[in-house]
Design goal:
The chain has 69 residues and is mainly alpha-helical. It has 2 helices and no strands. It has a domain of 46 residues. It is found in: Cell membrane; Membrane. InterPro entries: ATP_synth_F0_csu, ATP_synth_F0_csu_DDCD_BS, ATP_synth_F0_csu_sf, ATPase_proteolipid_c-like_dom, F/V-ATP_Csub_sf.
Length: 69
């Protein structure tokens, strides 16, 4: 059996699943917090967006490493 392609992409696929789970957890916590205290939405929204940005940046960094290594 011959494997054609790059094994790095399999690793990136697994990392992308982790990133998707992370984004889901961030927004789950945000929705849960706003549902419990609607007046805290202005405080929680920037924190959720920052968490989303960090998780996506790590996913993009993983893609770059998978392509160039």
């Amino acid at each position: 059996m011959e494997i054609i392609g790059n094994v790095n992409m399999i690793g990136y696929g697994l990392a992308a699943i982790g990133s998707a789970l992370g984004v889901g957890l961030v927004f789950m916590a945000y929705i849960n917090g706003v549902a419990r205290q609607p007046e805290a939405q202005r405080v929680l929204q920037p924190i959720a967006i920052l968490g989303f940005a960090v998780i996506e940046a790590l996913a993009i960094l993983g893609l770059v490493f998978a392509i160039f290594l």
